[in-house]
Amino acid sequence: MFAEEWTKTYLQALQEVRKSIGLCRMFITGLNTNIDGLRHIKGEEVKKVIAEKNLEKEIQSKLKKPPREIRTFPDVLAGILLCAKTGEGEEWFIRDPKIRDMIKSTFGYDKLRMGGQCGIMTNVLALLGFTVIPNVVALPPIQAEQFTTKRGEILIPRIEGNKIVFKKPLEAARENDKIFIHWIFEFDDQFSVQINKETVKAPVENRFIATYDDENVKLKIDPAFQEGTLEVISEVGTAMLSGYHMLQSNYPDGSKPEECIKKTIDLIKSWKERNPELRIHSEIGFVADDKIRKSTLNLLTLNVNSIGLNEGELADNLYTIGHRDGLNEIRALNSIKTYLGARKIMDKFRLSRIIIHNREYSLCLINSLHGIKPQNELHSVLFGALLAATLAYTGNFPTINDAEKALKSGELKISRKALTEHQRLATFLENEEGYSQEKFLKDGFTEIEPSIIFVSSNLTEPRATVGLGDTICSASLAAEEALTRREQKTR
Fold first, then answer.
1. How far apart are CA 456 and CA 475, in angstroms?
2. How many other C-beta atoms can be found within 10 angstroms of the C-beta atom of residue 54?
3. Cα dihedral 263/268/271/275 (nearest 10)
4. CA dihedral of 60, 66, 67, 71, whole degrees rounded to 10
5. Contact between residue 184 and residue 256 where contact means Cβ atoms under 8 Å apart
6. Cα 33 vs. chain centroid, distance in angstroms?
7. Distance (Å, whole) CA 191 – CA 315
């Protein structure tokens, strides 16, 4: 498809999903919810701090051997510069709470917004008009205020007496709960810092996250959430569980990350016992520790239907399972290597769906067990990608109307690189698997097993870079359920 054809296909997908969206049931989201302190950072600011503290040599050393955790304030600066240099987003954990105060006094934040994959997906789904039940381990009023009240219904389970009650966030808030603010340092492609003779320049816009959080790192499940979701699980079509990237190699109480993962798997199994048709999706975030990454893959992935990753996460997880071919090409968004890598993970862990989302395009694989036609999956991914583009364009979690306005504004431009990568993959599929490249380019999906769905991104000057992957995945899964249920009704 050419750029103008993609735009028409986006509009068609939006219309198809809009007609069916009311067929969705309620959603469950978990496991990490926090507050994001957003800070758009400029190169001059970082350069000034480095110069004032005479940190040039230390920062250069850390760039050569990244600590990937924050024990000193220079680690924060090194994290920002590393992400700018590579063009990839990472999240590092703050080990000393004093660093939080140093970040606040040095940089502060521009605004607060809902954070955590669970929190972001909850707001995205609610703005589509759904009832959503999130896992929230700490809900001070300032966190409760980050949940949207514009549309849908967000319900927090609470135990009162001997029964479960569902409350709106502000009604469920507790004054003495901990406040978790994660610093999101966003930068654009004009970001540039010179350190001695080295110039660090961002090739694309991205972000670095500095996190201090002693509850979500344990994948803690609120007891009321566990009991409450069991009461309503028969009314749920899809559950989305994420936050595994926050796991730590060890904890002060001596527990291990594998124990935390197994608790969530027990919850999944209890849901499945009561609702065998429930679909489970997990967004796999950036995991710096290879052992934790391996545990998450081996334990969690075999118990979910679908996973989502960006290009860096795909490369990291392939490395963990012993696949070393083409990882740099995957990070460079080569569509053939991305397809082959996604296929390897899908087959190894018996997934029915995997979606790889990057700045330029989304690549989704589904097999027949997922129970959706390839064209409906194309419309689902287009819908999710459009909502993510609208978030980037407006800086706010979008409604369907917001997405339609953004699409018709002319401010969203189809990625030229995506068009090239679509052609590259189409040629490969015809040469290696005998599938017509003309048909794949025309349709945007294949009708082989597994089906391949390719969606070119809409690009804009972003006002937000955090939450785009979570938006693609949650919105596409909602669209997927809507279109699947419509198909079932017409049989």
1. 16
2. 8
3. -160
4. 40
5. no
6. 13
7. 25
Residue 350: count other Cβ atoms within 10 Å of its Cβ. 11
pLDDT of residue 215: 85
The mean pLDDT value for 384-399 works out to 96
The sign of the torsion formed by the CA atoms of 118, 121, 126, 132 equals: negative
In one letter, which amino acid is 46? V
Does residue 356 contact residue 363 with C-beta atoms inside 8 Å? yes
Residues linked to residue 37 through DSSP beta bridges, in sequence order: 112, 183
The two tokens of residue 333 are 């968004």
Q: What is the pLDDT of residues 69-82, one digit of tens each?
A: 999 999 999 999 99
Query: Quick one: pLDDT band at residue 488, thresholds 50, 70, 90?
Result: confident
User: In this model, does residue 491 exceed pLDDT 80?
Assistant: no
Question: What amino acid occupies position 50?
Answer: I
Q: Per the structure block, which two tokens stand in for 412?
A: 């969203």
Q: Which of 384, 31, 466, 21 is nearest to 239 (CA)?
A: 31
**What is the pTM (predicted TM-score) of this model?**
0.91
Q: Is the pLDDT of residue 413 over 90?
A: yes
The CA dihedral of 266, 272, 278, 280, to the nearest 10 degrees, is: 20
Phi first, then psi, for residue 440 (nearest 5°) are -65, -40
Q: State residue 260's pLDDT score.
A: 95
Amino acid at 417: K
Per-residue model confidence as pLDDT tens digits over 222-277: 999 999 999 999 999 999 999 999 999 988 889 999 999 999 999 999 999 999 99
Q: How far, in Å, CA of 175 to CA of 204, rounded?
A: 40
CB-count exposure of residue 123 (10 Å: 0-12, 13-18, 19+): buried
Give CA–CA dist 359/313, Å, rounded: 13
With CA atoms as reference, report the closest residue to 121 among 480, 479, 468: 468
**For the chain, which domains are there?**
3-28+215-490 (3.40.1190.20), 42-106+181-211 (3.30.1110.20)
pLDDT tens digits, 4-37: 899 999 999 999 999 999 999 999 999 999 999 9
Local structure of 44: helix, strand or coil = helix
State the number of CA atoms in the 13 A half-sphere of 351 facing the CB. 26
